[in-house]
Design a protein that fits this description.
By secondary structure, the chain is an alpha+beta fold. The chain has helices at residues 7-34, 36-43, 48-56; strands at residues 86-90, 94-98, 103-105, 111-114, 120-125, 128-133, 139-143, 151-155. Strand 6 (128-133) and strand 7 form a beta hairpin.
Length: 156
């Protein structure tokens, strides 16, 4: 502290330093306090199933989850995360197979690029496909009529 600060000024500065963390904590805890009465009501419910339903009905401010949306599936890095585990569509027209870096156009307008070194040959017309979420952010294209699933990435 500066040497020219008065004794009262020093005490005020120390008090402000001590109160600052409490002020931050109180701002963070406001949403938790807003549902405190609801939590107490749920604690009083004797039936476990009903208690669970009570707790699940508590709305936490800022915790609303977006509904799954097939239109955003596969481009989570650019949009809010999707909760969808898989998305189904068809490949329009004749499908002769795939090779590395090929682009697959789906009936829903999405374009997916083959992202691995796999190749597949098939002769299908409007095959049904499912794009599934894999580990570590990967996506796999499951094509009706084959048991192989190339790794894919969504194109804009």
């Amino acid at each position: 502290m500066p040497l020219n600060m008065s004794h009262a000024g020093q005490r005020l500065a120390l008090a402000a330093q001590a109160l600052a963390p409490m002020l931050v904590l109180s701002v963070w805890s406001v949403p938790a306090l807003a549902s405190g009465a609801q939590i107490l009501q749920c604690r009083a419910v004797a039936d476990l199933a009903q208690r669970f339903i009570c707790y699940e009905s508590i709305v936490v401010p800022g915790a609303a989850a977006a509904a799954p949306d097939d239109a955003r599936f596969g481009i989570e890095n650019r949009l809010a995360p999707s909760l969808t585990a898989a998305m189904a569509s068809t490949i329009t027209g004749a499908f002769k197979g795939w090779a590395p870096n090929d682009t697959v156009q789906l009936a829903n307008g999405q374009r997916w690029q083959i992202a691995d070194d796999s190749r597949g040959v098939m002769n299908a017309s409007n095959p049904k496909v499912t794009v599934r979420r894999g580990a570590m952010g990967a996506f796999y294209l499951e094509i009706e009529g084959t048991n192989r699933s190339p790794k894919v990435r969504r194109l804009p």
